[in-house]
Design goal:
This protein is of the alpha+beta class. It is built from two helices and nine strands. It has a single domain, classed as Lipocalin (Beta Barrel). Strands 4-3-2-1-9-8-7-6-5 form a nine-stranded antiparallel β-sheet. The model has no long low-confidence stretch (mean pLDDT 86).
Length: 135
């Protein structure tokens, strides 16, 4: 299925959930934080998430001083998500971001001992997966 198909399915599911007041399918609420422009380039890179198929990779690119995310990931064993076209990462904390298309999933970036960003943790509900930045 294409990304547009998944967006349509999500929109329909959320509309039905709204009508019937299903709490699990309500859109996630995030509070937008201020982003330090100097921190954005540090996020750029490819993050590989351990996966039996070896296909889960997230790419962070920078365009016009803002971070964008593309790639694929899964959290838990049920769903696999693909972000074909880059989507903007919006800050909810200095090191944690969300997108307008990935629901309640957040992406938290962490530093190594030298202060360089070296991993990204994908957080969805109670599930987390960590991806390591590759050079």
């Amino acid at each position: 299925m294409s990304w547009d198909t998944w967006k349509l399915i999500t929109e329909i599911l959320r509309a039905v959930a709204h009508e019937y007041n299903w709490p699990d399918f309500k859109p996630a609420e995030h509070i937008l934080a201020k982003l330090d422009p100097a921190a954005v380039p540090r996020l750029a890179g490819t993050y590989v998430l351990p996966d039996p198929d070896g296909q889960d990779k997230l790419a962070v690119t920078v365009r016009d001083g803002r971070p964008y995310l593309s790639g694929s990931y899964s959290v838990g064993s049920t769903y696999h998500f693909t972000i074909a076209a880059p989507v903007e990462l919006l800050p909810e904390a200095s090191n944690q971001f969300f997108t307008l298309t990935t629901g309640g999933t957040s992406f938290r970036f962490g530093d190594n001992a030298d202060g360089a960003v070296d991993h990204c943790t994908v957080i969805s509900g109670g599930n987390q997966r960590e991806g390591r930045k590759t050079l």
